[in-house]
Amino acid sequence: MQIGKIHSWKKVIAQIILLALPTVMLACYLLWNANRFYNILQNQWILQGSYFAAGILLATVFYSFRFRFFTTTLVLGLLYYGVYKLLGSFSVGEFDAFFVSVQFMLFAVLFTVGWITGFGFSRSRYYTIFWSVFLLAVQIVIISKTSDYKAANMIGAFAPVLAYAFYIIFTAELIRNMNEDETSFGWFITKRLLGFGVVVLALLLAVLSIFQTDFKAIEKEWGNAEGKYDPNKGSGGESMTKTNKDGSVSNNDQTKLTSSLHKGKRLVFVAKLDNFFEGGTAPNPLYFTAYYYTKFDTLTQAFEIDSLMPDNDLFRPNPSKIPLYFAKKDSAVIKNTHATIARKVVNAEVYKVLLSPDEFIAPSTAFFCQPIPVPNEYKDQYKSAYRAKMWVSDLNSAYFIYNPAGNESLEQFQEQRFQALRSVTSYTGVDKKLLDYYTYMPSNTDYDSLRQLAKRITANAVTPIDKMIAIRDYFLSKDEFDQPLFKYSDNPGIPGIPSASKLNYFLFENRKGYCAYFAGATLFMLRALGIPSRVAAGFLTIDRSSKNPGWYWFYEDQAHAWVQVFFPGYGWIDFDTTVPDVNTQQAPQPDETPPLNMQDAYFVADGTVTSIDTITKKLQLKVSKLLFHDKDYETANPEQTMLDVSLATVSKDTGVVTLGTIKKGMHITTASYAEILKNITASEQDSLSDVIKKLHQPIPVDQIKIIDPENEKLQKKKEAAANETPTDWLQLMWILLGTIAACTAVAFLLPWCIWLYYDAKARNATEVKAQAFNRYTAAMFYLHVLGYSRQGKGPVEFAVAIDQQFNTSFVAFNNVYQQLKYSTVPLTAKQAGVIEGFYTPFIQSVKTKVPLKTRATAFLNIYNTISYFAQSKK
After folding, report:
1. CA 156 to CA 133: how far, in whole Å?
2. Taking Cα atoms as reference points, which of 282, 540, 573, 259 lies closest to residue 424?
3. Mean pLDDT score, 840-847
4. At what angle are helices 151-176 and 127-144 packed, to 10 degrees?
5. Is the peptide bond prior to 255 cis by the omega test (within 30 degrees of 0)?
């Protein structure tokens, strides 16, 4: 007995070409993406794609015949079971059996998904909707596995799936309603798909452009654009530092209150700090500051920098862009500290190991940066170096700052500092703008309990410093069992409710956290009391060196956050309320020798390379800035100079490079320690040109530093990123749901929008032929959407059926329309009157017969609209 067919071969071929093959291509793309994140797939996406392709192609052909789905699928399942047992009998060894079973499982799953999809395309009208939603869900899961949340990547990942979803729904309906007897079937399909492609492209561009800002917010919130992943720390969680793409380390420009903190053990930089206690022998260490966090995002619960903070006293030069031995200074930051009491200038030298070339870090408040060369014998250890000058408070000291935790000698030492600060009793006379900014708190109820706590624990304190001490002592207090009330923890956990305040959870429930928790809680309690404060981020300083006093080693696990409090006259003073971390082992004791015996350069020239000869080791430089015996010279008309580079060491901020790296047009700085330059002097009246003429050329140079233009671009990106506002982590879900909802809304509103367009054209046409065409089109579309389709009927037969159903004059109108369409005979006045008087009564009659609820439901059915454009218009 011959099995009957449901679809003709023409329709089956159309389903294979227009439905199955695009689906296979998208499935291969999704499998390729999934293979990057799931080890079980073993990166065999082509083979896996062939499993799916076999299933969908076989099912499309198979179900064009009258086979039942459940019966045949049951047979397929039994066949799987039989093959599985057969494979088990041939496998040798437990490992081989497991491997083969996993491979067969992948085949069975992918082939079955393809098989079901082939059936759905062949037999089910609504399967394409389920299938599209399923693919979107799969893509969401795959994207959630990546750590590279970039706007372009997310848009690129979802755009193909969204476009496919629109395409597959439209094309399936197009094939379902195809007229197989149409002579120009190929052109019929092509023109509709081209038109549909233009519409979908426009919709996708509109939807994705609307949400592009939110995608970029996700990139800022979750993205790895600045290399937050550190192989030594693993992925996930928060870190006080970040690893850049070039492997260097920078401080994070924000710190979040998260459930875990990752710490590395690598050496970041070494510093020499010329700050000693009275007598000049005992070193007085200072915390090194990178950023001030003055904003708090209540959605992401993150402390952030604010470039618009009033009286900005943060000095942030890019050392990699400053010529060697030349200096960048900013005296405005000194003025913005409002500090005139007990201040002095302190010098520091920073030698970078992993610290990023464009990163500047120094004790606060820095105002001067001068790149210096690394001695040749240390170039393997240190990539670059700079000098810094700071306007430092006599009251600031790591010993003063750090939480004493019961150390009596340290408490006595700190008391001298506190006694001086007790002279500040109020903030009368402080600029209102500064005071309002640095005492701002969120107004929601989460912070009311925090305000009450601050008032309770400082009830007996009078001056601002005593209130600060009371808060510090609260973190050092003990519970009823004589155990520490607060503990340090890199894994403090998170509240049970995702949106709950993590600071409240830290203060009132688990009482465990890392430095950002202690600093953040201190900040808001101080602000609740009207005391201006901010969070500082950088590195805490530990004096480990007994051989070389004043030298300090800074490791990743010393990245830290603490609080600065403003005192009129004294400026910003550091306080650290973080309790000691007794469970974590500190970074290893440094055993390297610091870079000593730095040479003074007699000649430093900055300019552009005009020629380089690597054979004769001669370099011609167009000099625009000159430093000669520590005196600056600069000119608007650069002077050509010949340099002898035969003994020169060439470096970039990333380390030592060869002479061949230097190219014409590069910006470089050269330095010379040659003794022949020692006794050559220049007068006060000499210009740069005069100095050059006094020197014997070629001038021997010992150091060449290439100023890399890429660092400037990275710095600009960094500054731009710092001003972006991060978004809530839940934003990802809402954006994805919003995108799907927007596309769905557009799809459901599309029939109504098309109808409004046709109706407007029908009512506004003035010329008779245009009136006839527009009114016929609008009437046919309206009837089709309401469910009254021609379904292969001729124009007259269909018009008669409509007149019988709705008591209209469609037959008379149709006769005139057909004459106007196919005949050149002019219309009579009576026929023109039929055209003129048809449309409005016709629409009204249909509305009278079809209830509003039925009309509304019909217009929400997108398939009716798709089938109208898919059907033959003959």
Report:
1. 18
2. 573
3. 90
4. 170
5. no
Decide: 847 and 856 in contact? Cβ < 8 Å.
Answer: no
Instruction: List own/partner pairs for 154-157 with CB under 8 A and 24 or more apart.
Output: 154/215, 154/218, 154/219, 155/208, 155/212, 155/215, 157/33
Residue 311, SS3 per DSSP: coil
Which amino acid makes up residue 37? F
Contact between residue 287 and residue 540 where contact means Cβ atoms under 8 Å apart: yes
Torsion of CA 816, 822, 826, 827, to 10 degrees: 0
Question: How many angstroms separate the most distant Cα atoms in the chain?
Answer: 117
CA 567 and chain centroid, separation: 38
Distance CA 443, CA 436 (A): 14
Candidates 335, 341, 333, 398; CA nearest to 368 is 333
Q: The pTM is what?
A: 0.56
Q: Which amino acid is at 114?
A: G
Which pLDDT belongs to residue 225?
39
DSSP 654: T
Q: Are 564 and 575 in contact (CB under 8 A)?
A: yes
Residues 41/99, Cβ–Cβ less than 8 Å: no
Query: Rounded CA gap, 118 and 252, in Å?
Result: 51
Name the more confident of 597 and 843.
Answer: 843
* Domains of the chain with CATH codes: 9-220 (no CATH), 603-709 (2.40.50.320), 733-870 (no CATH)
How many CB atoms sit inside 10 A of residue 90's CB? 9
Token reading at 260: 């875990």
Among all chains, which residue has been given the structure tokens 């030592």?
656
Cα–chain center distance at 494 = 23
Residue 736's H or E segment, with its range, is helix 731-764
Residue 268, helix vs strand vs coil: strand
Other CB atoms within 10 A of residue 5 CB: 12
The pair of three-digit structure tokens given for residue 414, joined into one six-digit string: 């700190």
Q: Which of 171, 116, 166, 174 is nearest to 136 (CA)?
A: 166
Do the Cβ atoms of 427 and 435 come closer than 8 Å?
Answer: yes
Helix 464-476 to helix 448-457 angle, to the nearest 10 degrees? 100
Q: Which residues neighbour 795 within 8 Å (Cβ) at sequence distance 6 or greater?
A: 814, 818
Phi, psi of 654, deg, nearest 5: -95, -5
Q: What is the pLDDT, as a whole number, of residue 166?
A: 78
Would you call 229 exposed, middle or buried from its count of C-beta atoms within 10 A (0-12, 13-18, 19+)?
middle
Q: If DSSP codes are grouped into helix, strand and coil, which group holds residue 240?
A: coil
pLDDT in the model for residue 698: 92
> Two tokens at 660?
């061949």
| DSSP, residue by residue, 680-728 | ----TT--HHHHHHHSPSSEE-SEEEE--HHHHHHHHHHHHHHTSPP--
Distance from C-alpha of 464 to C-alpha of 706, rounded to nearest angstrom? 50
Tell me the pLDDT tens digit for each residue of 135-152.
878 777 766 655 445 555
Cis bond upstream, residue 365 (ω within 30): yes
Residues 751, 785 contacting (CB under 8 angstroms): yes
Structure tokens that stand for 20 in this block: 């199955």
pLDDT at residue 218 greater than cutoff 70: no
- According to the model, what pLDDT value does residue 710 have? 55
| Interval 411-462: pLDDT, tens | 777 788 888 899 999 999 899 999 999 999 887 777 888 999 999 999 999 9
Beta strands in 451-504 (DSSP E): 487-488
Task: Quote the CA–CA distance of 327 and 325 in Å, as a whole number.
Answer: 6
In single-letter form, the type of residue at position 130 comes to F
Exposure string of 412-429, with b = 16+ CB inside 10 Å and e = fewer, is eebeebbebbeebeebee
**Mean pLDDT, all residues of the chain:** 81
Q: Which two tokens stand for residue 638?
A: 């650069």
**Residue 712 pLDDT > 60:** no
| CA-based torsion, 184, 186, 187, 188: positive or negative | positive
